[in-house]
Fold this protein.
Amino acid sequence: MWIAGVTESFSQEVEGEDGNEDCSAGSGDEASDEDSCGDSASKLVGCCLLTLLQMRAIGTCVAAGYSNPPLEMGKSECDLLLFVATTTELEQLREASEARHLPFDPVKLSNDRNSRCFWLGQIGTHRTIAVKTAIGGLGYCGSASSGFHFMARTRATKVICLGMAFGVDKCQQAFGDVLVAKSVFPYEDRDVVASGRCWEYSYSDRATTYPSSREILRILESQLSKAPDPGFRVMSGCLLTGHARIRCESYRNDIVRWSRNVGTGHVIGGEMEGLGLLSLSPKNKPNWMIVKGICDFADTQQEQEARAHRELACKNAANFVLDSLQSWVSGSG
């Protein structure tokens, strides 16, 4: 068990660098009563320290939902988590990090093979760890469960979900444009009601938008004021979020129309992982942000377009986020 390993490691530090304890001290005829008392006191202090260390380690791991600690304790805590859900998103984030001479060191924060974590070091004012989650907001290792687990494990206070999304207007948007979520609208929170012999969707008063983190938004907007032409267009507005894989233009347009009926404002696109982020904080104190590039337009050409443009979409989103973090000075903007 891991605790046993910690105990052994800590014991070696108490006993000396060579890890060998002189077991004969105080047990032979030559040992004095004073030596015996000294040994007993030292052992008592050592046992207390070991117990405290075990209690702290157990409490941390249980609270985070993991049975094992990170391999590198110095890289186990951060301020910011970057979530990606696909291999392309992860690889483009890796390339963007390496281009800025940032580390991208694997760290073990979970035993689950579906969760891969990487230490990016200090980016601007934020110690940062990237996490590859499962696709979507729901399910095991999705953005919701990953958010709960890794925020508890790393003590992070913010999450940025980055990667690829769909656009909603081919006339006004282009592949690779970066979408910044000022808010999200969970379009599947609706009623299904009878309409003659058919059915239709109905959005009740319960349907609403969720604002993203104003703090993270300031960081991103500050970067745009410093570098207004990053080589791609950056658009901010409301993102649709849900668990459906949409490949139908008329359905996409209906969602946009329905969402506007409940006051979403300017809808700029949609994606799947933001749905899980809504569970991470109260609506009035959001700790998350979504930044994604357009790789398709959720129509009948979705699959072909996504394959052709996903690298560009993910690359632009990763570059914009890292540039924003690197140039941010606390309190600026």
Remarks:
- The CA atoms of residues 161 and 290 lie 5 Å apart.
- Residues 33-64 form the longest helix (32 residues).
